[in-house]
From TrEMBL:
Gene Ontology MF, one: 4-alpha-D-(1->4)-alpha-D-glucanotrehalose trehalohydrolase activity
Keywords, sorted A to Z: Carbohydrate metabolism, Cytoplasm, Glycosidase, Hydrolase
Site (Transition state stabilizer) location in chain: 372
Chief subcellular location: cytoplasm
Protein name as annotated: Malto-oligosyltrehalose trehalohydrolase
Active site (record annotation): 239 (nucleophile), 276 (proton donor)
EC number: 3.2.1.141
Presence of the UniProt keyword Ribonucleoprotein in the record: no
Catalytic activity, reaction form: hydrolysis of (1->4)-alpha-D-glucosidic linkage in 4-alpha-D-[(1->4)-alpha-D-glucanosyl]n trehalose to yield trehalose and (1->4)-alpha-D-glucan
Gene Ontology BP annotations: trehalose biosynthetic process
Organism of this sequence: Amycolatopsis panacis
CDD domains found in the cross-reference section: AmyAc_GTHase (cd11325), E_set_MTHase_like_N (cd02853)
Length: 575
């Protein structure tokens, strides 16, 4: 087979195939190549005798520091030939971490739980990164070989079996990918060429606009297209795109959107690109003919923050601004709370307004919890650890009745008692200690006692973070699961609830934010966030109850709700 590698500054390149070294010859554009028969291979640059894995490796059976292995996509037998994908409008996304979703932490074990997701009613499964990283356990955001599937999860065939099984059950798969940085261990790309430029908060950043950056950009684009084409993945979640430094006239995100759109046309199925961004900039999801990048959706942290403050009362860190009584109503109507307005956390103005006349709500993801907002708390505690069930129900009702694309984090649907903590497993003792002490130092600045911060390198931290699959059948958890199933079913059955139109969206709220009424066509969602009963006004005469948490009573045009409850009503004549 032909072995190739891009190493534009090297004066000599060899490939070690099954233990035997072979000289490679130069080709156009800094590429080297040679034709050799074999399986396990690594590259030697110049006269250095240390073999390095292939930057474009498709399999790393022995970890990120060892030889790569040849992998042939054509050898896998797919059964999803009739699969035509799922549109993002109307979707319900379920975010999961493969390593802690089940006790075994493998693709095959996760396949056994897909029936739960089908019964729940979700449409898309979003996998946290599954590319190769150093160690056995980790979140996946420290990946260094982006095209190789983490071997402890089941490797490339394991991912394909998982995607194939999802498609057989009507579930689309979105894969989380990280193009803004590389992890701290096993990142050898800079040995081969000018891949790196600057640093992010998490590691080395990519050279997207400097000398030699054409091939670096191609490296990213080919990786993205490979997941969608060769692994049959249905979409990508792009991690922290605000950390991509690209000053070219055509931004990498726009270039990616163009190429993925072309691939989508070829494959005949939708391939949405969903960005995570801290910029509060609608340009990401604005069409290219409207001057945007043309991505399909982006996360909306502001709605999460407003809900979090309303449910928990926490006002530290980046939460103080969201304690405003109208914060939740504003984010429901306008997407961003910070939209060219002052951010006390950043000590500057932040964001840009969303033109709700032209941008639909399905382009923004709404969530009560996600992996970051749980895992980046010192103890990795979920809302269910401190928030009463009634308030959790109110928060879920707001998310699923909103005009946005709802997303939930694994276990949220049954108010899981297991935390989801930060963990890693770097084999290098010095790096492991640096991560351990750095994590504790970070949280000590926020008032946490260092000893109370879980050791991220302790296998017990991973064990604590695994879902307990006996919980969905237990009291308290069973009722929450039934509520989530009902809300998702109602969103599917009642078009008003999935209506993405933002212009003219009506949200009423109490002066102190203690209650909220969300108008969805003829439906009304009334939420009482206050601990004591309060009268929540509903315009028009309330009719039949579609869903409720608590025991609402009606008086005239008002609903009397006990504290921490919600009611979703429709005019009687509609039912």
């Amino acid at each position: 087979m032909m072995f190739t590698v891009w190493a534009p500054t090297a004066d000599r390149v060899r490939v070690r195939v099954d233990g035997v070294d072979h000289e490679m010859t130069t080709a156009e554009g800094g590429w080297w190549r040679t034709e050799v028969t074999g399986s396990d291979y690594a590259f030697l640059l110049g006269d250095d005798e240390r073999p390095l894995p292939d930057p474009r490796s498709l399999r790393q059976p022995h970890g990120v520091h060892e030889a790569s292995r040849v992998y042939d996509h054509s050898e896998f037998t797919w059964t999803d030939h009739a699969w035509t994908g799922r549109q993002l409008p109307g979707a319900v996304i379920y975010e999961l971490h493969l390593g802690t979703f089940t006790g075994d932490g493998t693709f095959d074990a996760a396949i056994e739980r897909l029936g739960h997701l089908v019964d729940l009613g979700v449409t898309h499964v979003e996998l946290l990164p599954v590319n190769s990283f150093d160690g056995v356990a980790g979140w996946g955001y420290d990946g260094v070989l982006w095209g190789a599937v983490h071997e402890p999860y089941g490797g490339p065939d394991g991912l394909k079996r998982f995607v194939d099984a999802c498609h057989a059950r009507g579930l689309a798969v979105v894969l989380d990918v990280v193009y803004n940085h590389l992890g701290p261990s096993g990142a050898y790309l800079d040995r081969f060429g000018p891949y790196f430029a600057g640093r992010t908060d998490w590691g080395a950043g990519l050279n997207l606009d400097g000398v030699g950056s054409d091939e670096v950009r191609r490296y990213v684009l080919d990786n993205a297209l490979g997941w969608l084409r060769d692994f049959h993945v249905d979409g990508l979640r792009l991690d922290a795109v605000h950390a991509l430094v690209d000053k070219r006239a055509t931004h990498l995100l726009e270039e990616l959107a163009v190429e993925v759109e072309a691939l989508s046309t070829t494959l005949g199925r939708p391939l949405p690109l969903i960005a995570e961004s801290d910029l509060n900039d609608p340009k990401l999801v604005t069409s290219r003919d409207g001057g945007g990048y043309g991505l399909d959706a982006q996360w909306s942290d502001d709605l999460h923050h407003a809900l979090h403050v309303r449910l928990t009362g926490e006002t530290t860190g980046y939460y103080p601004d969201f304690a405003a009584p109208d914060a939740l109503a504003k984010t429901l109507r306008e997407v961003f709370f910070h939209a060219g307005t002052w951010s006390s956390f950043r000590e500057r103005t932040h964001g840009r307004p969303v033109d709700t006349r032209v941008l639909p709500g399905h382009r923004f993801l709404a969530y009560l919890q996600d992996h970051d907002q749980i895992g980046n708390r010192a103890a990795g505690d979920r809302l269910s650890a401190t928030v009463p069930a009634g308030l959790l129900a109110c928060g879920a009702a707001v998310v699923f009745c909103s005009p946005y694309t709802p997303m939930l984090f694994m276990g949220e649907e049954w108010a899981a008692s297991t935390p989801w903590q930060f963990f890693a497993s770097f084999p290098d003792p010095e790096m492991a200690e640096a991560v351990r002490t750095g994590r504790r130092r970070e949280f000590s600045r926020h008032g946490w006692v260092a000893e109370d911060v879980p050791d991220p390198m302790d296998p017990a931290t991973v064990a604590r973070s695994r879902l307990d699959w006996s919980e969905p059948g237990r009291d308290g958890h069973r009722e929450m699961l039934a509520l989530y199933q009902m809300l998702i079913r109602l969103r599917r059955d009642r078009p008003e609830l999935a209506d993405p139109r933002l212009a003219g969206l009506v949200v009423e709220t109490a002066p102190d934010g203690s209650w909220l009424v969300l108008h969805r066509g003829a439906l009304r969602l009334a939420c009482n966030f206050a601990p004591d009963p309060a009268t929540v006004p509903l315009s028009g005469t309330p009719g039949a109850i579609l869903a409720s948490w608590g025991e609402p009573r009606f008086a005239g045009s008002s609903a009397l709700l006990p504290g921490h409850s919600f009611v979703l009503t429709a005019p009687a004549q509609e039912l």
